[in-house]
Design goal:
six-stranded antiparallel beta sheet, Alpha-Beta Plaits, alpha+beta, two-stranded antiparallel ribbon, 10 strands
Amino acid sequence: MERVRAWVNAILGRNVAPAPSQSDRLFALNTAQITMEVSLGLKPTGVAAIVFKALESAQFARLQAEIRDLLKIAARETQTVSHAMKDTYGYWWIVFYDDDFEELVAAMHLVTSSLEDQGFGPSLLAAVFEYVDEEEHKVYMIYNFKRGRFYPFVPTGGKTRDTAREFRIKAVLANELPIEPDTARWYPLWDLPLQRPQQGGGKSAFGNVM
């Protein structure tokens, strides 16, 4: 991955070596995957997303250009499909699709670490990874960039969640992932916009679905 980041820096005209990134902890999900499948019965759906807050117009124009370049590079390196959109709460999302989970994580890391390198780290709010259990119920692992920690989120419909199951997931993964210890910071993310795009592509704030 350091080779890929160096290549990205060269393509985008960056000469400064990147500092250690909060995004590096995303790779912990790869090593935790066996435990999640065997002990929790959770499998990744191949869908994940980054959510970030809105910026001033000049900053946002720069961010748009940066993300367009990064998504093109991520698609070439990992074959991950991605698109960007704005939700009903005014937050921006980059949604990634890849049935190869390691490639999915790598694409997420490529984009987030590069945005951090360019000074957009404070705008990054969370990374969301979608899983399903044996009964096709959705379960999410959410990474809080500011805290550098994960927490589980199990919505059950409407604006309700299964907190008991979230605590069980925490207990199982405590030795696998940096889990947020303060459960008051396990913020719910309702109405997650993680649906796969229709075949044929579509438009988004950052260009075509790739």
